[in-house]
Design a protein that fits this description.
By secondary structure, the protein is mainly α. It has helices at 2-32, 35-44, 52-85, 97-123, 132-163. 6% of the residues are buried.
Length: 170
């Protein structure tokens, strides 16, 4: 039952984080629209005008939402990993499962961002906004999380070999 609550909370916070992040962009589209589209974007823009006070509150609120989401990500992936670690299958009772799952989630998240950003950059001509330094930074983060993931795989294989389970017998 805790998995249902953990995943539902994770999904809820992710959707709110996504929608709140779109408010200034929807307001910009509203300003460029006319007719019924302007009304719809006006409702979705939540009265955003882009004043200094609104930006200050927006950054603070978005930062607090990110601060709430970060431990939630860590806890959800840790709880899910402990479900697997409690199994009676040989080799599945590793204490590295929680950091392994968290790092795997971060790794796959960076990979998904790269997979989405590179074609968007090309097709929508976003080279001025998404520069080579952004792609380099994403690649370095992907490399770092990939190396940590490789370390966890190596630890798992060594533990299985050293304990003599899961077919790693010398």
């Amino acid at each position: 039952m805790r998995d249902v609550f953990a995943v539902a909370t994770y999904l809820s916070i992710s959707v709110v984080f996504f929608i709140v992040g779109l408010v200034p962009d929807v307001a910009a589209v509203r300003d460029a629209s006319t007719g019924w589209r302007r009304r719809i974007y006006g409702l979705l823009g939540l009265g955003w005008e882009g004043s200094d006070g609104q930006w200050r509150h927006y950054r603070r609120g978005y930062g607090l939402l990110a601060a709430l989401a970060t431990p939630l990500v860590l806890s959800v992936h840790s709880v899910v990993s402990w479900d697997f670690a409690m199994a009676l299958l040989p080799g599945w009772h590793s204490t590295l499962f929680a950091p392994f799952f968290v790092d795997g989630a971060i790794f796959s998240g960076f990979a998904m961002v790269i997979i989405l950003v590179v074609p968007m950059r090309y097709f929508f001509h976003l080279h001025a906004y998404i520069g080579q330094r952004h792609l380099d930074a994403l690649a370095k983060l992907l490399l770092a999380t990939g190396l940590v993931l490789t370390y966890f795989y190596a630890c798992d294989a060594f533990t299985a070999w050293y304990s003599g389970i899961v077919g790693f017998r010398p």
